[in-house]
Amino acid sequence: MALNPDFEPITGFRPMYFEDVPRVIEIEESAYISPWTAGIFRDCIRVGYYCFVYVEHEVIQAYGIISVAANEAHILNVCVATELRGKGLGRKMLHKLVDVASQHDTDSLFLEVRRSNTVAIQLYMDEGFNEIGVRKDYYPAGEGKEDALVFAKALNIPEDEEQD
User: What CATH number is attached to the domain comprising 61?
Assistant: First the structure.
């Protein structure tokens, strides 16, 4: 079967759909000790969280989910397919989620990250997030629990309040 020469595959961000959940679960399960279930992802879509996938060559390569309410936003999940890590997709997804939060006039953006996830911690710090706290024993770990570091980023700061 020949390909339509006018067809241009979608590359970039788009909303996550229910049909995407099986691929998202593949990525999730390869990345986390205690992955989210398909039901959690479907619930996030159903309740109207901002759920995105990054697609290249018609394959979902990364996803991110953010909730926005009451002048603040919370990044709930960001993940890149294991074989594609280290190529900037996590940073692209983070930028997308920060843009969504900014477009909704939120003042603050929050997230949690495993204390052991030094690559993500460095990314968040590079992107202007500041550590504001610790949630003790927040994440399931191989044996026991692992602390979460809580990060925040101020958004939509009026120009006269910005500091150099």
Answer: 3.40.630.30
Tell which residue, 29, 96, 94, 84, has the closest CA to residue 60: 84
Contact 97, 66 (CB under 8 A): yes
pLDDT at residue 3 greater than cutoff 50: no
For residues 91 and 88, give the distance between their C-alpha atoms in angstroms, rounded to a whole number: 5
Pairing of strands 50-56, 144-154: unpaired
Q: What is the mean pLDDT of residues 131-135?
A: 97
**Domain assignment of residue 68, given as a range:** 12-158
Predicted pLDDT of residue 159: 64
Contact 84, 61 (CB under 8 A): yes
59 assigned to some structural domain: yes
Cβ atoms of 155 and 106 closer than 8 Å:
yes
pLDDT band at 53 (very low <50, low <70, confident <90, very high): very high
Q: Is residue 23 part of a domain?
A: yes
Nearest to 89 by CA among 110, 64, 67: 64
- When computed from its CA atoms, the radius of gyration of the chain, rounded to whole angstroms, is 17
Q: Is residue 164 part of a domain?
A: no
